[in-house]
Amino acid sequence: MAGTALVLGGGGTLGGAWEIGVIAGLAESGIDLSDADTVIGTSAGSIIGARLTSGVGAEELYEGQLAGAPVIDVTVTPGQTARFLWAALGSRDPQRSVRRLARAALASRTVDESVVLDSVGTLLEGVGEWPARNLWVTAVDVLTGALEVFDAAAGVTLPEAVAASCAVPVVWPPVSVAGRRWMDGGSRSTTNVHLARGHRRIIALSPIPKAVGPHPNAVAQGEELAAEGADVVVLTPDRGTRRAFGRNMLDPSRRSDAARAGRAQAAACAEAVAAAWQA
Question: Of all residues in the chain, what percent carry a pLDDT higher than 70?
Answer without folding.
Answer: 100
